[in-house]
Amino acid sequence: MPRFDSRTAHAGFSLPEVLVAMAVLGILAAMSVGSGQRSLALMRVESTSRRLALGLEQARQAAARHGQPCALALGPSGWREPSGGSLPACGISDGAEQEHQAGVELRHNLPAALRFSSNGLVLDGGTVLIAAEGIELRRCLVLSLPLGVVRLGRYSGPADGKPSSSACLADGAL
User: Fold this and answer.
1) Model's pTM, two decimal places?
2) Is residue 4 part of a domain?
3) Contact 129, 108 (CB under 8 A)
4) pLDDT of 9-51, one tens digit each?
5) How many CB atoms lie within 10 A of CB 49?
6) Residue 124 resides in a domain
7) Range of the domain at 79
8) Is residue 70 included in any domain, yes or no?
């Protein structure tokens, strides 16, 4: 039968020690949640920018493959068929049609319908700005004329988010 030892009865933690340990754990948990949200926002911006570039490439290929001009429109959640107009939709595959990414904002100065020639060249130019709350990284997708060159970079323009092709800088991370 075990005996009662008065030395082991006081071997536990005191209430102030437990409260300090819980406070430290709470601070660490709050820091990791904030970091996780920033990482998620960063991944959403990166994913959206790459999917927009993929959609452009698929539209180019569709125009060249069919040998006829076509058009795409950029909506609040990504590429879609243009409404109205004389050109048919490019018919990009479902991988390039974007589902809405919560928290990602798209701003652009593209025309209502982005046109592609029968050999796959982009006939219109502009800039798309991709941003999300909680992170400073803003991506930009530039379509420059006359050859329809598409470039993905880091936007370093004013905070108001008005797209400007001169503010889209090359990013070594891409």
Assistant:
1) 0.71
2) no
3) yes
4) 566 788 888 899 899 988 888 877 767 788 888 888 888 988 9
5) 23
6) yes
7) 14-169
8) yes
Please report, for the chain, how many H helices and E strands are present, in that order: 2, 8
Q: Are 153 and 174 in contact, with CB atoms under 8 Å apart?
A: yes
Helix (H, G, I), strand (E, B) or coil at 67: coil
Number of folded domains that form the chain: 1
- Backbone conformation region of residue 85, classed left if phi is above 0, alpha if psi is from -120 to 50, else beta: left
Q: What is the C-alpha to C-alpha distance for residues 101 and 159, in angstroms, rounded to an integer?
A: 21
Phi, psi of 101, rounded to the nearest 5 degrees: -95, 115
**Structural domain contains residue 3:** no
Residues in the chain, total:
174
122: domain CATH number is 3.55.40.10
Phi then psi for 167, rounded to 5 degrees?
Answer: -100, 5
For 72, other C-beta atoms within 10 Å of its C-beta total 29
